[in-house]
Amino acid sequence: MKLTEQQRASELAPLLAAGWVMVKGRDAIVKTFTFQDFIQAWGWMSRVALQSEKNDHHPEWNNVYNRVEVTWSTHDCGGLSLKDVKLATFCDQAYAKN
Amino acid sequence: MKLTEQQRASELAPLLAAGWVMVKGRDAIVKTFTFQDFIQAWGWMSRVALQSEKNDHHPEWNNVYNRVEVTWSTHDCGGLSLKDVKLATFCDQAYAKN
């Protein structure tokens, strides 16, 4: 289910304040994470991959060496859902521990 | 070192025959691999990631659930090198074993 206006204020706003950006023309958020090298980037991606599979909710992502651009949106509802909020938050938390 | 014309005929041509495509406006090749699900896609990506790190040559790649689009090019020489041929071939071999 798509985020309500209230949920956007309470759940999405903190992510936008933390560097996530609305994708132009889509109800989706994107953020680029930068690492020391490929090993660090891949380690982080692996954690996000396992968490995604566990939640049955997967990112659109692009990796070039030490950079990973991650987009979250929910296909089923055609926009942002609480699943995206959950996984985007996981991305930030895993990055903070990196 | 960029591929010579002779190397393009002997090394690159087989990859182009196997589904790799020249990227428009770049001396780079791209191919999309499709899997049964995310687990299969991630398993394949993990093998490519380890091989990339071992060869110190990394792809540009994009993953959405069961699809992975991989681009190979060599930054140092500004175009395709034998490293790209080697890793693109590895991608195909690992996919065949999938």
From TrEMBL, chains A, B:
SUPFAM superfamilies referenced in this protein's UniProt entry, alphabetically: PCD-like
Pfam families registered for this protein in UniProt: Pterin_4a
GO biological process: tetrahydrobiopterin biosynthetic process
Keyword Lyase: yes
GO molecular function: 4-alpha-hydroxytetrahydrobiopterin dehydratase activity
Gene3D superfamilies: Transcriptional coactivator/pterin dehydratase
Catalytic activity as recorded in UniProt: (4aS,6R)-4a-hydroxy-L-erythro-5,6,7,8-tetrahydrobiopterin = (6R)-L-erythro-6,7-dihydrobiopterin + H2O
Keyword Heme included in the entry's annotation: no
Top-level EC class as recorded in UniProt: lyase
Record keywords: Lyase
Record EC number: 4.2.1.96
Highest taxon of the lineage: Eukaryota
HAMAP family: Pterin_4_alpha
Family under the similarity heading: Belongs to the pterin-4-alpha-carbinolamine dehydratase family.
UniProt protein name: 4a-hydroxytetrahydrobiopterin dehydratase
Organism, as annotated: Scylla paramamosain
